[in-house]
Structure prediction request, 160 residues.
Amino acid sequence: MGGSIHAAGILAFVAATVLVLCVFRQGPRADGERWRGLWLAIRALLVETLIGFVASLHMCGAGNPIAQWLIPGVGWAFVSLVVPSRRVRKLFGRGALLLSLLLCYQYLDLVHSADYTGNPAWERRSMRDSDVRVSTLWHTRLTGLYAKQVVPAEKTFPVH
Prediction:
């Protein structure tokens, strides 16, 4: 259930980005405004890349939140390039920043739970005394989350 909510958050952000781009986009911008929009887009991508780097510092192999910072970063960059209203850009940027932080840490929480993993190969190696069954979900390509079920291996004792 947590993975579906996580995917819904990403999809809602994509829908909000498209809506903002459609509603607040105006005609061609002056040259100075184009360069300012380009700088704002680069800044958005740099900030989001920094968030992705910090969120990936745990280095445990359970999975890294790539889509969780990349999708808000790209959306923020597009809005910075296209939308001339400073207030809309600022509000959208703050929302994208907050959402990416929430998504990254929700992802890390999910991959360290008993129900999900972000790296099936690592999960199988780390559970030597158990059988791990990993399956894809409807949102696996978007979120990078896989369903995980751990089945304890039966131990047999010698009979004397």
About this structure: The two ends are 47 Å apart (CA to CA). DSSP finds six helices and three strands in the chain. The CA atoms of residues 117 and 156 lie 29 Å apart. The first helix runs from residue 2 to 24.
